[in-house]
Write a structure and sequence with these properties.
Strand content: 25-35%
Order of helices and strands: HHEHEEHEEEEEEEEEHEEH
Structural class: alpha+beta
Distance between the termini: 161 Å
Shape: elongated
Number of strands: 14
């Protein structure tokens, strides 16, 4: 009987001890939670220099991205070039046929990619001249996956802007904004197809305006680039630079890099230039210059995509884009202008004579 009472007493003591321990742990946890809550209440005082967050005063890039991306296209440029096979005397010694000694020419396709921006519902697309220059075939892929063959409406090597067209209706478009109203530090989005990754969107700020880089190898070049730190890579050329309202403020054109890929500096042709050039290309097929000069057609001098180290190449057909006559050197004077100057000298010589005296008969 004593053993039973002893066992019951031990169990009761254990229960009381366990309950006391549980009460102590619960009380400790409550005190710790209360302490954390008090710390959270004091935290805002540590950031007293911050103003209150107001969502309507900060940019929401989702609106611009989701709407503008619908009007940015991928452009595949195909160029057919003649390639001559090398003649190998070693193979000829063993009777391996190689064609003629001079090598047989065969046609080879070279493909390059870029981007473009739809600016009208009936299929007009603005892009870079170096994206479509010398292309024998253009293939445009829309954001929704549809593909179209495109034709060139006009090119302007001096600004590296080109206008192409596809046969389609009711296409999504991007409205023109105002690049002059851009402010330093303002958010912008770059949309294009870098490395054939279609409909890629990157964000950055306006780093500088009116940059002159000298990367367009043309005597009449016009450069006033918008510099941003939005990531731009090969394939972004011709793509859209839009503001937070989804308006087109520039066409991504070149990057400044020692590697050929983005390292923090990208440049876009501003909307003020693009809009003027596009209007002239659509109406006349060439850019109209105030000084009366024609920009030569043919190669623009920009190789590859996005400048890739701003490589240049000289030459081209050296033809006037309007009359088709040969020029004196790349971007040289118009041949008709030279002929007019020679005719004027001859007339002055006949009129003044070798001594410079005016021999024009007096007016009766």
């Amino acid at each position: 009987m004593k053993k039973i009472f002893l066992f019951v007493g031990v169990m009761a003591a254990a229960a009381v001890s366990g309950g006391a321990a549980a009460w102590m742990v619960t009380r400790s946890a409550e005190q710790q939670i209360a302490y954390v809550e008090r710390e959270v209440e004091r935290t805002p005082a540590l950031g007293s220099q911050f103003t209150s967050y107001e969502a309507d005063r900060y940019p929401d890039l989702t609106y611009a991205a989701e709407n503008a991306v619908k009007a940015v296209v991928n452009i595949e440029a195909v160029q057919e070039v003649a390639v001559r096979e090398n003649w190998d005397p070693f193979l000829e010694f063993f009777g391996v046929p190689q064609g003629s000694r001079r090598g047989d020419a065969r046609t080879q396709e070279r493909r390059a990619g870029g981007s473009g921006v739809i600016i009208s519902e009936d299929g007009y697309i603005v892009t870079n001249n170096h994206v479509v220059d010398e292309a024998t075939k253009l293939r445009v892929t829309l954001n929704d996956g549809r593909t179209f063959d495109a034709r060139i409406i006009g090119k302007d090597p001096a600004t590296d802007v080109a206008l192409i067209k596809i046969d389609a209706e009711k296409l999504p478009t991007i409205p023109f904004g105002n690049s002059d109203s851009l402010r330093l530090g303002e958010w912008v989005l770059a949309i294009g197809s870098p490395f054939d990754l279609r409909s890629t969107i990157t964000a950055g700020i306006v780093s500088a305006k009116a940059r002159t880089l000298g990367v367009i190898p043309n005597e009449f070049r016009i450069e006033s680039f918008i510099q941003t730190d939005a990531a731009v890579n090969p394939g972004n050329s011709g793509g859209a630079l839009v503001n937070v309202h989804g308006e087109l403020v520039g066409i991504n054109t070149v990057i400044k890099s020692s590697t050929g890929s983005y390292i923090g500096y990208s440049f876009a042709v501003p909307e003020t230039i693009v809009k003027k050039v596009v209007t002239d290309l659509k109406e006349f097929g060439v850019e109209q210059r105030a000084d009366g000069h024609h920009v030569p057609s043919g190669r623009s001098g920009l190789r590859g995509r996005d400048g890739q180290g701003a490589r240049h190449r000289r030459g081209g057909r050296r033809l006037c884009s309007q009359c088709g006559r040969r020029r004196r050197g790349f971007g040289g004077r118009h041949p008709q202008g030279r002929r007019d100057r020679v005719d004027r000298r001859r007339e002055d010589h006949r009129r003044l004579g070798p001594s410079g005296a005016d021999r024009t008969p007096p007016t009766q």
